[in-house]
Specification:
- The structure is a homodimer.
- Chain A has about 450 residues and is of the alpha/beta class.
- Helix content of chain A is about 35%, strand content about 25%.
- Chain A has 16 helices and 17 strands.
- In chain A, the strands form 3 sheets. In chain A, strands 1, 2, 3, 4, 5, 14, 15, 16 and 17 form a 9-stranded mixed β-sheet that branches.
- In chain A, helix 9 links the parallel strand 11 and strand 12.
- In chain A, helix 2 runs parallel beside helix 3, helix 2 packs across helix 16 and helix 4 runs parallel beside helix 6.
- The first copy, chain A, is globular, with a radius of gyration of 21 Å.
C-alpha cells in the first residue's frame, strides 16, 4: 500500500547522476520515501492520490544559504554598498529583534520557500530556538547553524550553539540537522574559529560560514593574517569537519585547491552578490577543480526573495555572459546546482533527487500557462520560463505541505498579520546600536 | 463622468520625470486617458470601478524589442552559440511558418505579455499582416516593423513593407504604429539599407534594426566596410529618421557619440544577450552620453519569456556587478528603463507614465503575497520581489484587457490549443532550408 500516489506528471528524474525526462509517469511514496516511478501505477494501491496532468515533478529545490527571518527586512536597504548595508541598516535593525519576531519572520520566509518549491534550507542566524520551532511546525527540512560573532562572551556563545546542537540535531524525524555557524573570519577571531572547530569535532557536526565575500575582505585578511580567509578558516581547523562556505566570490588558485582537497562546498548566492556589486564565485573554475557548488538565496534584505529557480537562472545566465560561451552552463547543470549539488553541499543523503529510494521531497510545477507553452524542453521551461509561482504542490518528507497553492502547515494569513504588526517597531533604526560592526575595509588594505 | 475608476491602489506615479509613491490613491480614466489621480475620487462619478487594495498601480511596461510570434519556438534551441542558434535552429524552423502560425504564435506571446503587465511592444518580424491582426484584436499597443533581409527580391520586400506602413500605421485608434525594419547590417546590403532609409523618409516613419549584437559582427563590419555597424547604419541614412537599435552590445566611443548625436535609442535585451553569451550593452556609458536605453525581451526562442520585469531586474543586477557598485543603477532608474524610457525609445508620447493626461496604459500588481511582504519599499518590491504572475489587472488605452488574471480580449484556451496543434509540424527541421544565413564570423575577421 502506498501512502501517496502522484499521477500523470512529467517527471524530471535524477537517477545515478543522470537527468531524464519521463512523460506521463506516476510517483508512489511509502514511508517518507519514493517507492516507485513508473508509467502507470494502480491508484487502488494508494491511500491518497494527486493528479499532476500538465505539471512537471521535480526534486525539491535546496536553498544552501539563507537567513530566513530576514524576510522581515525585505526592501529596507536598497542601492547601498555592503559596508553601509551592514553598519547603516541591517546590524542596527537586528538589535530590534525578539525571538517572537524571528519566529514569525522565519515562518514568512519558509512560506515563500515552500510556495517556490524549496524543500530544504541551510539557515544561518541567531535566536535559533525560535527558528527551529518554526521549521519543525512548517514541515520544512533544514540544516540550522547558530551565528557566532567574536565579542566579550565567546564561550557563552559556543555553549549556546552547543546546546542548540544537542537539543535539535536529528529532531523531527531527522528533518532538522544542526551545524556550527561562525559568521566569518572578519567578525570572528582565529581563537574563536579554533574553538568552534573543536566543538564541531566533538559534536560530530559540520560548519557553515561566510568566506571571501568581497575583494576587500581578502585584502584585509592577507594584511592581518598573511593569508586569505579560506586559508585562515582551514588553519583554524574548520575544514577538518564537513564544511559549507557561502559566497567565496574572491579566490586564488591556492584557495580553490584548498576547498577541493578538504571537500568544502560553496553556496553561491548570485542575486545578493550581483545586487551588492561584490562579485560572484567563479563557478566553472570551482567545479572544474572538483568543488561542489550549490545555490543559496542569502537573506531577503539583500536578495529580496527566497527564489532558488531565480538563483539557478541568474547564475547560468551570468556564467554564459562572462565566459562568452552559451554552452558553458547547460540547463542540466543549472538544475543540478539547485538540487543534487545542494544535497552534496549539506552532506545530506537521499535528497535533491527524484529516484526510487530517495526521500520524498518534491514539487509539482504547472506548465500549461502562456509563459511556459509550448513545452518543447521541460528542463529549459523550468529554468528559463517558469516562475516560482508556477509551483502548485510541494511534498517534504512524504507530507503534502502545499496543495494547489494552499499552504497546509503554515497559517499564512496569521503570519502576514503578525509580520505587519511588527514592521514599524522593527524598522526603528539607531545606527550606533548594532549587533556587530562591519570593519572599514578597502580593497588595497 | 469617468469611464473607469481604480480605487485604493498604491500608485507609482511618474510625473514630469519624478517617480513618487502615492499610498491609497484612486485613478480615474476618461476617453482612454488618465483624468485624475487623487486620494479619494467619488465612485458615483464612474461608470465602472475596480478596487485595488493591496496592489501597486504602475504604468504599463514597454517591451522595446520583441519577436512575439517566436513564442512558438520557446525552448527549441538551448545552450547553443549564436551561429548555431540561427543557422541550425531558428532560420530553418522559420521556413515552416505560415501566416496562421504567426498569428497564433503572436497571440500566445501577447497573452504572456499582458499577463506580465506589458502594454506596448515593438515587434520586428515577417508576415506582419497576421501580427497586426493579432495586435488589433488583443487590445495591445504596438510599434510594428516588417523584417527585411537582402536577397533577390529587395524591391519587392520594400514594397511589401511600404504597403504595410500605408495600411496599418495609425490603425486601431493609433494603438498600432508602423516603422521600417531592416534586419541588420550583416544581413542587409548598404544599398538595401539606403533604400529602406529613403522609404522611411518618404513615409515619415522610423527604423527599427538590430545593431552590433556580437564582437564578431563589429569586426566583420570593419573588415568589410571599414566601419562599425553603427556607422554603416548612419551612413546609409537610417539615423536621419527616428531610429531604435536593438542590442548594440559592442560599441566604440565614436559609436556612442553617433547614437547620441542622432537621437538613436537602444533596446537592451539582457536575458537573450546573457543566455547567448554575446555581451550586454554598456548601459551606464550610453546613458551618460545621453542615449535613451530601453528594455526588450527579444524573442522567446532566446529569452524564453516576454517578461519585462525580469529584464529590468537582470540589467540592474548585471550593472551593479560589473561596475562593482551597488548604487550605479538604483531602483528608480531600472523602473524608468522599463517604462518611460521605452516610450522615448519608440518616440510614443503619453505612454510609460502614470500622470494626468497620459494614455490609460497601466497594470495592477498584487503585493500581499509571502514573497512581497512586508512592503517596506514598493519600487524595490516591484523590481526585486514581484513576479510577472503577480500582475492581476491590465488596462490598455482605457480598456481592461485582463481582470483578476483573466484575459478579456484573448481566448487563451483556444490559443493554447491552436499552438499545440502546430508544434510537431513547426519543429520539423531541415537545416539546409533557411530563411536567411548567419555569416561565418570570427572576432578577429
Amino acid at each position: 500500500m502506498y501512502d501517496l500516489l502522484i499521477q500523470h506528471a512529467t517527471v524530471l528524474q535524477v537517477a545515478n547522476g543522470i537527468l531524464s525526462v519521463l512523460p506521463q509517469h506516476d510517483i508512489a511514496i511509502v514511508d517518507r520515501r519514493i517507492a516507485a516511478i513508473a508509467p502507470e501505477i494502480s491508484p487502488g494501491l494508494a491511500r491518497e492520490t494527486l493528479t499532476a496532468d500538465g505539471q512537471l515533478a521535480i526534486p525539491g529545490l535546496i536553498n544552501s544559504h539563507a537567513h530566513t527571518a530576514m524576510s522581515l527586512f525585505r526592501g529596507v536597504a536598497e542601492d547601498v554598498p555592503i559596508e553601509e548595508w551592514f553598519n547603516g541598516y541591517i546590524w542596527p535593525l537586528e538589535t530590534n529583534l525578539t525571538p517572537e519576531d524571528v519566529y514569525w519572520g522565519t515562518l514568512l520566509g519558509l512560506a515563500e520557500m515552500i510556495e517556490g518549491g524549496v524543500t530544504c534550507v541551510a539557515d544561518h542566524y541567531f535566536m535559533m530556538d525560535a527558528i527551529a520551532s518554526a521549521v519543525q511546525e512548517s514541515g520544512m527540512r533544514a540544516l540550522l547553524a547558530w551565528t557566532l560573532f567574536s565579542g566579550a562572551d565567546d564561550q557563552q556563545q559556543i555553549n549556546t550553539a552547543r546546546q542548540f546542537v544537542e537539543q535539535w540535531h536529528g529532531a523531527a524525524n531527522d528533518r532538522i540537522r544542526v551545524w556550527m555557524g561562525p559568521h566569518s573570519p572578519y567578525t570572528c577571531t582565529p581563537s574563536l574559529l579554533q574553538r568552534v572547530a573543536q566543538t564541531a569535532r566533538e559534536l560530530g557536526v559540520g560548519i557553515h560560514i561566510h568566506l571571501s565575500e568581497t575583494a576587500a575582505q581578502v585584502a584585509q585578511s592577507i594584511a592581518t593574517y598573511g593569508r586569505s580567509p579560506v586559508l585562515v578558516a582551514r588553519d583554524a581547523g574548520l575544514f577538518d569537519v564537513p564544511a559549507l562556505a557561502a559566497h567565496v566570490a574572491h579566490v586564488s588558485a591556492e584557495d580553490i585547491e584548498t576547498l577541493a582537497t578538504h571537500g568544502v562546498a560553496v553556496a553561491v548566492t548570485p542575486k545578493t552578490e550581483m545586487k551588492l556589486g561584490i562579485g560572484v564565485a567563479p563557478t566553472l573554475s570551482l567545479r572544474s577543480a572538483g568543488v561542489t557548488v550549490a545555490l543559496g538565496s542569502d537573506g531577503a534584505a539583500s536578495n529580496n526573495t527566497y527564489d532558488i529557480l531565480e538563483a539557478a537562472r541568474l547564475l547560468a545566465l551570468l556564467e554564459k555572459l562572462r565566459n562568452n560561451d552559451a554552452r558553458c552552463m547547460p540547463i542540466d547543470t543549472a538544475f543540478e546546482l539547485a538540487t543534487v549539488a545542494g544535497a552534496r553541499a549539506l552532506q545530506w543523503d537521499g535528497i535533491g533527487v527524484l529516484q526510487v529510494g530517495a526521500r520524498a521531497d518534491l514539487a509539482l510545477v504547472q506548465c500549461t500557462t502562456a509563459h511556459t507553452q509550448p513545452l518543447h524542453n521541460p528542463v529549459a521551461t523550468l529554468l528559463y520560463s517558469a516562475q516560482s509561482t508556477d509551483v502548485t504542490t510541494v511534498i517534504i518528507d512524504g507530507r503534502i505541505v502545499m496543495r494547489d497553492r494552499v499552504l497546509l502547515t503554515i497559517d499564512k494569513p496569521r503570519v502576514l498579520r503578525e509580520v505587519a504588526a511588527r514592521v514599524e517597531r522593527l524598522t526603528q533604526r539607531q545606527t550606533e546600536r548594532r549587533i556587530a560592526v562591519y570593519p572599514e575595509l578597502t580593497a588595497d588594505t
